Fold this protein.
Amino acid sequence: METVEALKKKIKCAEDLRSIVKTMKALAAVSIRQYEKAAESLAEYNRTVEMGLQIAMRNKPEEVVMAKPGPSRYLGAIIFGSDQGMCGPFNEQVVSYAIDKMKGLGISRKNRILWAVGIRAVASLEAAGEVVNEYFSVPGSAAGIAPVVREILMKIEEWRAREKLDQVILFYNKLVSVSSYRACALHLLPVDIDWVLKLEKRAWPSRVLPTFTMSWKPLVSSLIRQYFFVSLYRAFAESQASENVSRLSSMQGAERNIEDRLKELTAQFHRVRQSSIDEELFDIVGGFEVLTEKEV
């Protein structure tokens, strides 16, 4: 049987751990809202980019033909994971989803270039037998997303020129409710022609159509670059919101387990303490009886 002092130490450790878990829960909850707000603020900017493309496509030169690209031979995949642990199946889920989707594309491994965001995603990919060509750290806050997005866009341009990439897909987790998420894929390159044609035919929200004075090709190129930026930024924001939802869920489970363990330890402490008190009382009574017998 454990001593009272040993149980006191265990209870103290459990209480300290509970305090840490509560702090992590609070940080995760705050982070979720931070990244949700980042994604929401981006929605209006994305709408502006789409409206710009809409006007540009309505005024495209006659010689411009919107043709669908042929089958892809080289794939660039960007898998968004985490740098930190204690977020449940977050990394394993998106990596498993990405691998299944890549297999379905029929592109051999030698023609795949894999980039991972988050060291945990790297570990999960390598455990599955995949080779990671580039690694990016997860930004520590929403303010740090933009610089990493710009770095990735530069890398995409480098790899397209060097490796003849004709397809780039983003794999990341996105929220489906306040407490759950799922893995999804976004085709960054080539640009979806059907989506562009739908933009062209979409009704304009006012009676006045804007116009532009710069050359059509540079304008469209600039708008497409902004579309890439928005898509990557949103993937980061949604992935990190999902990561913190997963971490919050893990911390809630840990907190319940700690509470249960504390109840067990406290009950055991009271039993051992009571047993110790009983033994002391028996010793006192026994000593008193011995003294009484001697006096008689």
Notes: The chain has a mean pLDDT of 85. DSSP finds six helices and five strands in the chain. The CA atoms of residues 8 and 269 lie 7 Å apart.
